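Job type: complex structure
Entries:
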Amino acid sequence: MSITSDLLRGHTDTIILRHLLNRDSYGYEINKYISEKTDGAYELKEATLYSAFRRLEENGLISSYWGDETTGARRRYYSITRQGRVVYEKNIADWDEAKTLIDELIREVDV
Amino acid sequence: MSITSDLLRGHTDTIILRHLLNRDSYGYEINKYISEKTDGAYELKEATLYSAFRRLEENGLISSYWGDETTGARRRYYSITRQGRVVYEKNIADWDEAKTLIDELIREVDV
DNA sequence: ACGAGTTACTATGTCTGTCAAGGTATATAG
DNA sequence: CTATATACCTTGACAGACATAGTAACTCGT
C-alpha cells in the first residue's frame, strides 16, 4: 500500500532537511534511507529529489560540496544551513497545525 | 497563521466529499463552511473549488443538479454518489497512513 | 432609485512540485 | 565482459491550486 504523491507533496523538503540534521548526506543515501524506513511505501523519485536539492540550495537552506571519494562514483554532499534549521522547525510547526486542521475537515464529526 | 497550498493539496476532494456526506450542498456554502470552521486559516479559492467539482463529477464521485431557487442567485447543488462514499473512505484510510509515515519521516527521532 | 456589497457560478491562463524517461560514469560480482 | 549497484543529472509533461476576470441576481442603506 503506497501513498499518493499529492499527500506527500510539500513534505519532500522537510524530509530532506530532517535527514541532514543528523549528518551531511547525499542524494542516493537519502533516497535509500526513505524507502527503507517506509518499507518501500514511499519512494522519492530521483528527479523529485534532485530538483528539491536545487530548490533548497537556491533558497539557502542547504549547501553542497563534492565528496573526496577515492573509489566509487563521486558524491555531492549536502549540509543544512542555519536558515535551513529555522525553516525545518517552521515546517514541523506548520505540519502539526495542518494535521489538526485536515483532520477536522475530512472527518465526519458534526452535522 | 495559514497553511500552505502544498500541505492541503490532495485533500480538497476529500474535504468536499466529507461535506456532501452530511447533505447536498453547493459551492459557495462549502467554501463558507470551510473558512468558518478553520477560522479563516484555510480558504479554498473559488477556482480550486469549482475545478474540484468538475473533476469529482467527471470521476463519478458526485453528481449535480440546479436548485430551484425562487429568489437569489441560482445554485448548482452537488450530491455524493455511492462511489464517492467509497473513495471518501479510502481517502481517510490513506490519510491516516500518510500521517504516520510523514511524522516518521520529518521528526527527529533516531540517528 | 441607485450604488455598494453579497451571493453564486464560470472561464482562461499561470505557477510549482512531482514524475517519466532518458542519459552519464565508476566499481564489483559472476 | 556483462549485469548489477552506486551515484548524479537533464528534459519535458502533467495535474492541482491559484490569480484574474467576467456574468448575473439579489439586498440594504441612503
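Summary: Chain A touches chain B through 34 residues (CB under 8 Å). The two ends of chain A are 32 Å apart (CA to CA).
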